[in-house]
Amino acid sequence: MIRINLQHVLWLKNVHDARKYFVSKGINSTTAYRYARMTNKRFTFKELETLCLMFDCTPNDVFEWVPKREHANQGYALEKLIRAQEEESLIHVIAKLPVEELMDVKRYILEKSKSSKEVR
After folding, report:
1. How many domains is the chain built from?
2. Could you tell me if 31 and 51 are in contact, meaning their C-beta atoms sit under 8 angstroms apart?
């Protein structure tokens, strides 16, 4: 089954209170609650586009494939959408780095940030 997994993107973006985050981005409270709890059974292309723009991601970043047993490990292209359980947030991984390496990470991120803004 293909489904939307916002938890994956929220985790990567270090969003702890999803409902509050969505409301702060202009999503009405009821829809924000449904997004945060993943109780939406359907998404329109407009909603998908809104989410992708909000998180600066592609649909592949929010789609997840949960295969039936008979489809597991068969080499389908959809396997790219199988999400592994994230063990530790990126923030926590980065916080464990020595200061010198943190500065390298900061420079790299700033460099990437500048180059992605120039492309837009």
Report:
1. 2
2. no
Residue closest to 50 by CA, chosen among 12, 82, 22, 29: 22
Domain span holding position 36: 2-86
Same-domain pairing of 17 and 57 = yes
* CB contact at 8 A, 3 and 39: no
User: Vertex 105, ends 100 and 109: CA angle to 5°?
Assistant: 150
Among 36, 37, 33, 48, smallest CA distance to 2 is for: 48
Alpha-carbon span 6 to 52, nearest angstrom? 10
> Are residues 70 and 19 both part of a single domain?
yes
Reading the block at residue 101, the tokens are 């390496």
Q: What is the pLDDT of residues 18-72, one digit of tens each?
A: 999 999 999 999 999 988 888 777 889 999 999 999 999 999 998 888 888 888 7
pTM of the prediction? 0.65
